[in-house]
Amino acid sequence: MRRHQMDIQLKTPEQIELMRGAGLVVAAALDAMCEAVAPGVSTADLDAIAEKVILDAGAVPSFKGYHGFPASICASVNEQVVHGIPSAEQVLQEGDLISLDCGAILHGWHGDSAITVGVGETDPALLRMAEVAEDSMWAGIAAAARGAANGRGRLTDISFNVEKVVRKSGRYGIVDGYGGHGIGTEMHQDPHVLNHGKPGKGPRLVTGMALAIEPMITMGSPRTVELDDGWTVVTRDASRAAHVEHTMAILEDGVWVTTAHDGGRARLGDLVTSRQPAADSLAE
Length: 284
Fold this sequence. Notes:
Blueprint: E1 2-4, E2 8-10, H1 13-36, H2 43-56, E3 60-61, E4 73-77, E5 80-82, E6 97-106, E7 109-118, H3 124-150, H4 155-169, E8 173-174, E9 180-182, E10 189-193, E11 210-213, E12 216-218, E13 224-226, E14 233-235, E15 241-243, E16 246-251, E17 254-257, H5 265-268, H6 278-283
Helix pairs in contact: 1-2, 3-4
């Protein structure tokens, strides 16, 4: 491991494999929560489910205690964009939209991922927004893979491709001030990854970089405000929001989405590394 450009931490293939272990724990926790999402379930219930999955895997929740955050997940409902604090009083209702953001540390390495899902029968327009956010995330990851492969990729190529998918898909707001980040031995590292911008700017995309790609979009204005709890970020106009995230790493022969069960192959095809790491073999 070494530092490179903007104090970016570059990982060895062996270290990225350790990140894959953490990523699979996060994927399992998200799966368990998604199965439990239903009207009448509280966000505190979902937090307990995730924490049990993480601890049972021998990992540690990376959110709990982070700058004083009191829970193992962020659960953001409807107009809440990110950093919602789980609560027994926050009970899901039919038609709600919830973003579940989860992180885990395993053997000192981090995984971080988020998904937005509907609760029961949900307005198709809201589900479409969540789909657009996911599509934009994968477009950003694909841009990183292509840029690293041809040696000409820059950080804002990710940002540009995230924005391009969102803009062409509808009149959604792209939340400013929040975005993706480097990740490795800490949850948040350099560089910050914007979800909008011109391509060809910032540090080069090189082997060993690990990034969390993290679009956040709204049905209305992109403007947000932080609530008095010091964490929860909501849309200023009370419009619904979607937030998705995957952790990805760049290897010599492709990218590896460490928090996706298949490493990203279904969405990225041959852009995914061809190596067959031990963590994946054990997961099958």
